[in-house]
Structures are given as C-alpha cells and as structure tokens.
Amino acid sequence: MSEPVGELDARFSDPKATARPWSDVDDVLTYGKIFWLSTVRGDGRPHVTPLPAVWAHGALHFCTGAGEQKGKNLDGNPNVALTTGTAEQHAGLDVVVEGVAIRVTDGPRLTELAGLWKDRHGWDFTVGDGLFQQDSEHDALVFAVTPAKILAFGKGEPFSQTRFRFS
Length: 167
Description:
Elements: E1 7-8, H1 22-31, E2 35-40, E3 46-51, E4 54-56, E5 59-64, H2 69-76, E6 79-84, E7 93-104, H3 107-121, E8 126-128, E9 131-133, E10 139-154, E11 160-165
Antiparallel strand pairs: 1-11, 2-3, 2-6, 4-5, 5-10, 6-7, 7-10, 8-9, 9-10, 10-11
C-alpha cells in the first residue's frame, strides 16, 4: 500500500490545524491494543464490541468465533468500522477505519498473524483448517479490513479531523 495523503476537513478542525501525517495514524493502528468493532445485526441494529486487532499488510485484522454476535453479523453484512485511540479528551489521536471485513484462510498468512497476535497481545493461537485455534472448543475466524476510508481525530490544540481515502 502506498502512503496515503490526508485531507484536513476544515469544518471540524481548528483554523490553525493541518492534516495529520500518515505516520501518526500508522503508529496508532500498529500500537493500538483495543479496538471497538462496529457491525450491523440482521435487523439493522448496530453491534459494538471491544477486541484486540493487528495492523499488518495495509489491513486491520481481528478474529471472532463464528457463533458470536459479530461473527453472525459479518455473515450477513461485512461492512464494519473499527475505532481506537485514547480516552484523553484534550490530547492524542483517535482513528476510525471503515471497510469490508474479508475472511483470511491462507495458512502462511494466518501463521504470520498468529505470531503478531502473540507479540502484540500475548495471545497464543495455532493455525488449522483456515482459522485460529486455542483449544478444541475455541476456534476463531480471522478477518482483514482493508481501509476504504480512515478518519483521524487530533485532540487538543489545535484539534483536527483528517480523512484518508483509499482506492
């Protein structure tokens, strides 16, 4: 993925603000520990849940059990938003990633992702049958969300909203 260029949205930014650089957003996605996944239930109601995710190869990856609510929701509607950032009101950067969740089943890629989950989150997964496995009762489907759009909200002075679009 080539480095995207951000566009400042002056409507929601301090007049002194400039667009946040991609490197700031990349750092938040790489080092974020908890992301809030938003999916849509079959009846149109939203479902939001916190989970760890891994930013790699230009996509944000997460996992879920097929029988969990988010797994059921993704089966019917793969459009998602993942949000991360800081609880601080006047400092830091919050990031929202919008895109389509696509199932990852490739063994070598899953093995690499399992290693990243271990390094970044301390979770131990083995790979088998196109999914993550922890034990005989806890299989997890893995999804990749390649961004369609990313919004970065700079907090503090100057506050800003930067939009990154992807083709």
